[in-house]
Design goal:
Length: 987
């Protein structure tokens, strides 16, 4: 309960919050004082009273008044501010962010705190809205305002008390801004979808409206209707009778908690098969093999990457993974966007389509046949709950067959086919379905009721025409959750005011004592070696022979943390973005361009701040001494890999800089050999480079990336620096050092590949006893008649590996720090702070470890570090996928004009098709059996991984794993997703 308020001599008032806790059977009374103020302003330009009474804060800054004196009007001409409740923010945040509505919005502190507790990502988006002065959102601290604070009454729930507090804000603003002396009366509209809360607000004289009613009251409400989430538009949202259950209901929270505790239920992440949308897997520690989820009923409305709860099926229902390709096709006759009656089945709960019915029948026949291979059996399960949805903004296109004449003129339902083929189509309502045909559109999924075969969502915005470079690039950035909006003014204000004219200050400047701690290395012969055209140069090197015959080698990294200070807007933006993203035609920077390409870039011929690691090495590249220092350097030259290689190889070049690069090359070879001897892996990926026309920016040709010795030179010394720095920061911060680990792959990951090698390549196999054993066995897997075969196996082995991850050192024991791929016991990322936030944290920790400056608390707190690594792991992974998608898009554009015959390799075999990798383009394509020959004559031998069929010419043909084949390659637009992909035809 809360006692009465007391007035203090300072003018403040205080309430006492009284809590009673029971501890060991004894009642403990706790009294906390809560201070209230009478000088919290309303932040409205229309209120002269508040502007007169406000006082500056401790830094002498006056609060900013944001709310307009001439706010937006309803269609009947009423100027108004808006007060919103928690559920409006949680369910309609993208509508609040829309530039066509929601200006002059008051967010009560009560609402802000509720949003933070219920969804931190949405809370961050709300904070960004508050920071954006254009939208005019303000947080009103009602919990500290004497006029708006409300007590919690006896017997009142917290939710009811909070609803009362929010209504009080709306009521106070209405009376505060509309007095007799108010020059311009401003109406207050309270938006709330809770019927009970709305009723109470109206009884209290507040203009309370639902979100739909408010949108309808705006001049552009007709256009905004499509943007309202489907779960907010209550009755009549989607047509048809949806009273019959299609999917099983999820278990209750109590049943789930009990099941996890007693070991009958398991939690994990769902991964949908790339070639069969009706099959997924969930990996759980209790089983060596992933749990198989087969059929839409067992998948039970879960999306790819959802965190799910699964229940194991009886052992007699365990199965082999399906060897059938099943892609969700275009909208069929049994799909109706407006009526779920057509979706309802009988025996299987109404969810099964004709295509799935055939598939399940085939799987049932296979399970009962005598050919079942016990070694391939996997435990099966069904999804009984979803812990956390992976829902985000999705990009897709409206399916033309779901748009009728009627749909084009009224707000009726249609289907959106998403770009991600692992996801189901989504039903939305829009009046502009015909207008959006042929365009990439952005949607949000709102709900997936158990009585609906498909999820429901709503339209957000359009990106442009399908296949236009701008629309496709923005689509892939949204698909991979890459932040690409311009940096805000708050972020840019953190940069030096001198901008492009900034220069390294005088080292003897008495005003900056930190400068005295820097080591002047401008006499060293430093140079950088990067890809051609690189402007964000974050690493440079030098080497020289010492008088004692040993070598001094230095790695110099751009000192980004000199400019990016902890807890600033610039730092928070870098932490949120996590990494720069490199696309074929552009770069999405983690930090503003001024930093990356100018202030921090180690450009030649200018002084730059750096963080340096300098070793003394002997002839065999053994470390005799290592030093870490903040420094000032002056690069002598910026080489491309090819330029550096030509200079090193040219015997006429005998200058000191060239000789120092030769020393670096010699030592790098020793370092690489040492890593290989220790068991480092030399894996591969089908990487290609797309050449763009310099004038038109059109893609011209594709080539496989060629690696030179200078590529390896730079890589070895970057690895060397990362390992040395990892040891240093771990010694100083054993609980919170930012490190990177790579776990060894489970043997089950290589089971299928090893079986394929054994069957198809005369007993060849990959050893997994250690990384050294794996590396040696990969070296032995060669085909004397095909030099590319070894590369192919390395590519396939890469896909069997675990993903490397960042982690704070206190999260694992030291043996688990090991980086399996590099064969080192400890590792981190230090060498690219311009483009990776991990490196920014490592720079700060290294600066603290050498006593250069104190380490910020956020990098000494284990819980904060765990939040940082969780985000950058996600951002790093998304950036990789976005980069690959960009290459895939542009390779598709190149192939449009280069239809030709190429060599390929079979890398997957199914009973109704094969997957072929084409090294020339670095792409892989699915060739369905129906395009190769007669389906009726096909026979797939799973034990031999070979597919036999009668081809289109009537001849018997067999295609098997690892076969080299000739294919016609062309680029076609997928009818379902609208994405351009490689279409391969077997010769």
């Amino acid at each position: 309960m809360i006692t009465n308020r007391k007035r203090l001599s300072s003018g403040l008032s205080v309430t006492s919050k009284v809590f009673v806790r029971s501890r060991n059977g004894n009642a403990l009374k706790i009294v906390r004082e809560h201070y209230l103020r009478n000088d919290i302003p309303c932040y409205s330009h229309a209120c002269h009273k508040c502007q007169e009474i406000v006082k500056p804060d401790a830094q002498g800054q006056l609060p900013k008044f944001i709310l307009s004196s001439s706010p937006t009007k309803t269609k009947d001409g009423v100027s108004h501010y808006v007060v919103i409740d928690t559920n409006i923010i949680l369910h309609a945040i993208d509508l609040l962010e829309n530039t066509q509505c929601f200006y002059d919005v008051i967010v009560p502190q009560t609402v802000l705190e509720e949003v933070r507790n219920r969804s931190f990502p949405i809370y961050q988006r709300l904070r960004n809205l508050v920071k954006s002065e254009d939208k005019r959102f303000v947080v009103f601290h009602n919990e500290y305002n004497e006029a708006t604070y409300v007590n919690r009454e006896k017997g009142q729930s917290i939710n009811d008390r909070n609803d009362h507090a929010i209504r009080k804000v709306a009521s106070w603003f209405n009376s505060h801004l509309n007095t007799e002396n108010s020059p311009t009366p401003i109406h207050i509209i309270f938006i709330c979808n809770d019927v009970d809360n709305c009723t109470k607000a109206k009884q209290e004289g507040i203009d309370a409206r639902s979100l739909v009613d408010y949108i309808d009251s705006l001049p552009n409400g007709e256009d905004l209707r499509d943007l309202i989430p489907s779960d907010i538009v209550l009755p009549g949202n989607f047509e048809g009778d949806q009273n019959e259950t299609v999917f099983p209901e999820y278990y209750s929270n109590a049943r789930i908690m009990a099941g996890i505790k007693n070991g009958t239920l398991y939690q994990g992440m769902l991964n949908i098969s790339s070639y069969n949308y009706l099959q997924g897997t969930v990996s759980v520690p209790a089983f060596k093999k992933p749990l198989l989820i087969i059929g839409s009923k067992n998948l039970n409305r879960a999306f790819n990457s959802d965190s799910v709860i699964v229940e194991l099926l009886p052992k007699d229902k365990w199965k082999e993974p399906s060897s059938t390709i099943i892609e969700e096709g275009s909208i069929g006759a049994d799909d109706n966007a407006g009526d779920d009656e057509d979706d309802l089945g009988e025996e299987t709960g109404g969810v099964v389509s004709d295509k799935e019915r055939v598939f399940l029948a085939q799987e049932a026949m296979k399970a009962t046949s005598s050919k079942t291979n016990e070694s391939r059996l996997q435990p099966t399960a069904k999804i009984v709950g979803v812990v956390r949805r992976s829902w985000r903004y999705y990009v897709g296109q409206i399916a033309p067959s779901s748009v009728s004449e009627e749909t084009g003129h009224s707000s009726r339902s249609c289907f959106v086919i998403l770009m991600d083929k692992l996801l189901p189509k989504v039903r939305i309502r829009t009046r502009k379905a015909k207008e959006y045909l042929g365009q990439r559109i952005v949607i949000v999924v709102d709900s997936w009721p158990s009585n609906s075969r498909y999820p429901n969502g709503h339209f957000v915005r359009t990106l442009g025409e399908i296949e236009s470079a701008e629309a496709e690039t923005e689509a892939l950035l949204l698909e991979h959750d890459v932040e690409y909006r311009p940096f805000s003014k708050n972020v840019l204000d953190c940069l030096p005011k001198e901008g492009d004219n900034w220069v390294v200050p005088d080292m003897t400047d008495p005003q900056d004592p930190q400068l005295k701690k820097r080591v002047d290395l401008r006499d060293r012969l430093v140079c950088s070696i990067d890809p051609p055209g690189c402007v964000d140069i974050d690493d440079a090197l030098h080497a020289r022979v010492l008088p004692n015959g040993n070598y001094e080698v230095g790695v110099h990294i751009a000192d980004v943390t000199h400019f990016v200070k902890p807890n600033t807007a610039l730092d928070q933006e870098g932490a949120s973005r996590g990494t720069s993203v490199y696309l074929v035609d552009k770069r999405i920077d983690m930090l503003p361009m001024l930093l990356g390409t100018n202030l921090c870039s180690l450009k030649p011929f200018v002084d730059r701040f750096a963080f340096s690691v300098i070793w003394e090495l002997d002839e065999n590249a053994n470390i005799l001494k290592v030093d870490y220092m903040k420094s000032v350097i002056k690069s002598r030259q910026a080489f491309s890999y090819e330029q550096a290689q030509l200079r090193i190889d040219d015997p006429t070049q005998t200058d000191e800089l060239t000789n120092s690069m030769r020393v670096l090359l010699k030592l790098s070879k020793k370092l690489k050999q040492g890593r290989m001897d220790a068991g480092a892996l030399n894996l591969a990926s089908p990487e290609v480079k797309v050449h763009m026309d310099s004038e038109t920016s059109d893609p011209q040709e594709v080539e496989i990336k060629k690696l030179l010795e200078t590529n390896s030179l730079v890589e070895e010394f970057m690895l060397f620096a990362n390992i040395s720095v990892a040891r240093k920061i771990y010694d100083s911060y054993p609980q919170t050092a930012m490190l990177r680990r790579h776990a060894p792959p489970p043997a089950t990951n290589f089971e299928t590949l090893n079986d394929m090698l054994n069957v198809r390549k005369n007993g060849m196999s990959i050893s997994l006893e250690s990384s050294k054993a794996l590396a040696d066995s990969l070296d032995r897997i060669v085909d004397p008649n095909d030099p590319y075969f070894n590369t192919l196996i390395r590519i396939m082995s890469t896909r069997c590996m675990m993903a490397a991850e960042y982690f704070p050192s206190g999260s694992y024991g030291y043996p688990e720090f090991r980086h399996y791929g590099l064969a080192v016991d400890i590792y981190t990322h230090f060498t690219s702070p311009i483009r990776r936030y991990c490196d920014v944290v490592v720079h700060r920790q290294l600066a603290g470890a050498i006593g250069y400056e104190n380490l910020d608390l956020s990098h000494r707190d284990k819980q904060r570090m765990e939040m940082i690594v969780k985000n950058i792991n996600k951002r790093h992974r998304n950036a990789q996928f976005a980069g690959r998608s960009s290459i895939e898009y542009y390779v598709g554009q190149v192939m449009r004009n280069n239809e030709a015959e190429h060599e390929g390799y079979v890398i997957k075999c199914f009973n109704n098709g094969i997957v072929v990798l084409v090294p020339k383009f670095g792409v892989e394509g699915l060739i369905k059996l129906e395009t190769m020959g007669d389906l009726a004559t096909a026979n797939y031998n799973e034990d031999k991984y070979e597919l036999t069929f009668t081809d289109l010419k009537g001849a018997q043909r067999t295609v098997a794993m690892f076969d080299k084949v000739t294919v016609d390659v062309k680029s076609v637009k997928d009818e379902v997703s609208g994405k351009r992909r490689a279409q391969l035809m077997l010769r």
